[in-house]
């Protein structure tokens, strides 16, 4: 499929949220949506980062309508608070792009008691999404069919997840490598999009009952110059050599172009109803992922596990 962000229609009146919107793919996803008239909330770890991002995007698109939500994915209380702040300000949400992520970082447990990659990449997004689903379902009842969407950024690195996919006995994977921990978290992103499709997508009980319909997707953007791998201090040498080789042959894309599939899945009318729940690669190409990423039983188990964890911490 041929797609360019310039192909987007006028998005005036629509509202979007982009996590990890202060740099890389998230920055340009927010910018492209705002370019076409949408109001975009950028999630940032600090007020300073958020304001700097807004100024940067408005220097590209003078009339960009931007706001921010301050939250730290390694502090789940701030994630829940940010979602509640949004719903206190807005009455509609057309698109949520769960973009924030970390990769191959040193082993670390957060203050909430989870391994940092698993919390940042999966748990925080699951929690944030859960708080926002009600307003999205409400929005979908009056919006044109298929315009309310949730997009999860993942990675082909999901294939490095443990053999079982997700180790529910020890999601921290303390005895495993950092790349296995990353793989588990990225697999979780795909499974999350899959279960959301089952719950709220076309043909779901929610859609059939007229309670709302949300289209979902998960995206592997390819190797993009986001700076994420520069922070991957624990990444195996082979990964760094591979990335260098890709760079040498011009295979790494700039962050703006790397965001095109995110923009497509968030807002393009070219997305098809039957592709809700699908796994995408660049640019806007539906691809069949590996067996673990298609395992609905695993997706359901992960959803139940995450919900129980969040309920036990009274975050829902």
UniProtKB/TrEMBL annotation:
Presence of keyword Secreted: no
One Pfam family in the UniProt entry: adh_short
Presence of the UniProt keyword NADP in the record: yes
Record Gene3D superfamilies: NAD(P)-binding Rossmann-like Domain
Keywords, alphabetical: NADP, Oxidoreductase
Residue ranges of coiled coil: none
Gene Ontology molecular function, alphabetical: oxidoreductase activity
Positions of transmembrane segments: none
Family, per entry: Belongs to the short-chain dehydrogenases/reductases (SDR) family.
PANTHER family hit by this protein: RETINOL DEHYDROGENASE (PTHR24320), WW DOMAIN-CONTAINING OXIDOREDUCTASE (PTHR24320:SF282)
Record-given protein name: Uncharacterized protein
């Amino acid at each position: 499929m041929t797609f360019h962000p310039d192909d987007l229609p006028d998005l005036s009146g629509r509202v979007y949220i982009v996590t990890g919107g202060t740099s890389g793919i998230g920055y340009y996803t927010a910018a492209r949506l705002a370019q076409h008239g949408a109001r975009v909330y950028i999630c940032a770890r600090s007020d300073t980062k958020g304001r700097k991002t807004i100024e940067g995007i408005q220097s590209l698109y003078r009339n960009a309508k931007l706001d921010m939500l301050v939250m730290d994915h390694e502090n789940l209380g701030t994630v829940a608070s940010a979602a509640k702040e949004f719903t206190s300000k807005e009455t509609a949400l057309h698109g949520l792009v769960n973009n924030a992520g970390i990769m191959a970082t040193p082993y670390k447990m957060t203050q909430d008691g989870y391994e940092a990659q698993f919390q940042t990449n999966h748990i925080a997004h699951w929690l944030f999404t859960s708080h926002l689903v009600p307003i999205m379902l409400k929005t979908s009842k009056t919006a044109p069919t298929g315009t309310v969407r949730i997009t999860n950024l993942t990675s082909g690195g999901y294939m490095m997840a443990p053999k079982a996919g997700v180790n529910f006995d020890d999601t921290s994977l303390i005895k495993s490598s950092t790349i296995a921990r990353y793989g588990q978290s990225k697999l979780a992103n795909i499974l999350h999009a899959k279960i959301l499709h089952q719950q709220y997508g076309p043909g779901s009980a929610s859609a059939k009952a007229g309670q709302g319909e949300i289209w979902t997707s998960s995206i592997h953007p390819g190797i993009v110059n986001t700076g994420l791998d520069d922070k991957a201090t624990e990444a195996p040498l082979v990964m760094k050599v591979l990335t260098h080789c890709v760079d040498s042959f011009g295979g790494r894309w700039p962050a703006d172009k790397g965001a095109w599939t995110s923009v497509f899945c968030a807002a393009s009318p070219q997305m098809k109803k039957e592709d809700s729940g699908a796994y995408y690669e660049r640019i806007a190409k539906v691809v069949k992922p590996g067996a673990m990423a298609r395992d609905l039983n695993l997706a359901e188990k992960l959803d139940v596990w995450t919900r129980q964890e969040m309920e036990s911490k009274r975050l829902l």
